[in-house]
C-alpha cells in the first residue's frame, strides 16, 4: 500500500494544482515528485475532458444549446479554478504594457491587478468558447470529441517545458523545469497524438496541425519577448490551445 501511495503522489499533485477536484492533499512534495507530476498533466486533461463531455451531454438534454453551453463553460472554469484564465490575463497585461521590454513585461505579469486589455481578452475567450460549445451541442454525437480539447492543451504545456527555457527563477515552474523526466515526457508527447490518430484519423490530424501551428506562434512570441516562458504564459497557452481545438471541432463537426 505504501508503494501504491508513493506512485500516486505525482498524479495527485497534478490534480491538486490543475483542478479543484478533491484529492488527498500533498503539502510537502519532494522535488522529483513535483517534476514527475508534469507527466500527468494530459491525464488530468483527460479527466476534465470526460467530465466536460458528460456534462455537455446531460445539460443538452435539459436546456437549449446556448444555455447548455454557458452552463458547461461555467463547470469547465470552476473545475480548473480559473487557473489558466488568470495566466492569460496576466500575460495579456504584460504584453500590452511591457512595451517590448522583457523586464517590464515580467514585472507587470506579477501585478495581481487586472487591466482593461486583460478583461477584454478574458471576455472574448470565454465568449468564443461558449459559442463554440453551443455550435457543437447542436448534435450529441459531437460531444464525445470534447474530451480531446483539455488533453491537447495540457500536452502543449508538456511540449513547452521540453522545448522552451523557463525564465522566472523560484517557484513551482522552476522545480518542474529542473526535475521533470524528459525522456518519459518525449515518449508521451509522441504517443498521445498517435493514439488520437487511431481513434479518429481525419479529425485528429486537423486538431494536431492546428494545435501545432498555434503552439509555434505562441512559443515564438514568448521567445521574442521573454527569451522563454513563465507559469502565466503557460496558462495563456492552455487557454488559447483550447480555443484553437474548439474552433477546429466546430469547423469539422459543427
Structure description:
The protein is an all-alpha fold. The protein has one domain (2-253). The protein has twelve helices and no strands. The protein has helices spanning 2-18, 31-37, 41-60, 65-80, 83-97, 102-110, 116-136, 148-163, 171-179, 182-199, 201-226, 231-253. Helix 5 (83-97) packs across helix 6 (102-110) and helix 8 runs antiparallel to helix 10. The longest helix is centred in the last third of the chain and has 26 residues, at 201-226. The protein is globular, with a radius of gyration of 18 Å. The termini are far apart.
Q: Please describe the biggest sheet, giving its number of strands, its sense, and whether it closes into a barrel.
A: none
Specify Rg, calculated over alpha carbons: 18 Å
Structural class: mainly alpha
Number of domains: 1
Shape descriptor reads globular
Order of SSEs, N→C?
A: HHHHHHHHHHHH
Number of strands: 0
How large is the count of helical segments?
12
Give a nutshell description of this structure:
By secondary structure, the protein is mainly α. It is built from twelve helices and no strands.
Amino acid at each position: 500500500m505504501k508503494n501504491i501511495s508513493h506512485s500516486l503522489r505525482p498524479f495527485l499533485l497534478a490534480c491538486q494544482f490543475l483542478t479543484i477536484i478533491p484529492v488527498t492533499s500533498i503539502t510537502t512534495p519532494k522535488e522529483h515528485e513535483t517534476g514527475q507530476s508534469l507527466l500527468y498533466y494530459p491525464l488530468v486533461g483527460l479527466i476534465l475532458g470526460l467530465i466536460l463531455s458528460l456534462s455537455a451531454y446531460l445539460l443538452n438534454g435539459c436546456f437549449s444549446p446556448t444555455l447548455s453551453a454557458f452552463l458547461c463553460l461555467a463547470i469547465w472554469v470552476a473545475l480548473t479554478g480559473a487557473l489558466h484564465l488568470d495566466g492569460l490575463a496576466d500575460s495579456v497585461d504584460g504584453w500590452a504594457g511591457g512595451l517590448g521590454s522583457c523586464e517590464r513585461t515580467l514585472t507587470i505579469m506579477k501585478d495581481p491587478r487586472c487591466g482593461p486589455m486583460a478583461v477584454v481578452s478574458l471576455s472574448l475567450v470565454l465568449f468564443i468558447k461558449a459559442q463554440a460549445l453551443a455550435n457543437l451541442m447542436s448534435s450529441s454525437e459531437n460531444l464525445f470529441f470534447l474530451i480531446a480539447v483539455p488533453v491537447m492543451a495540457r500536452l502543449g504545456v508538456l511540449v513547452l517545458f521540453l522545448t522552451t527555457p523557463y525564465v522566472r527563477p523560484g517557484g513551482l515552474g522552476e522545480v518542474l523545469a529542473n526535475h521533470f523526466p524528459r525522456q518519459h515526457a518525449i515518449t508521451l508527447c509522441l504517443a498521445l497524438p498517435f493514439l488520437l490518430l487511431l481513434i479518429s484519423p481525419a479529425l485528429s490530424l486537423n486538431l494536431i496541425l492546428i494545435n501545432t501551428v498555434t503552439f509555434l506562434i505562441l512559443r515564438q512570441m514568448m521567445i521574442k519577448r521573454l527569451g522563454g516562458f513563465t507559469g502565466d504564459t503557460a496558462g495563456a497557452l492552455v487557454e488559447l490551445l483550447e480555443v484553437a481545438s474548439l474552433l477546429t471541432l466546430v469547423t469539422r463537426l459543427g
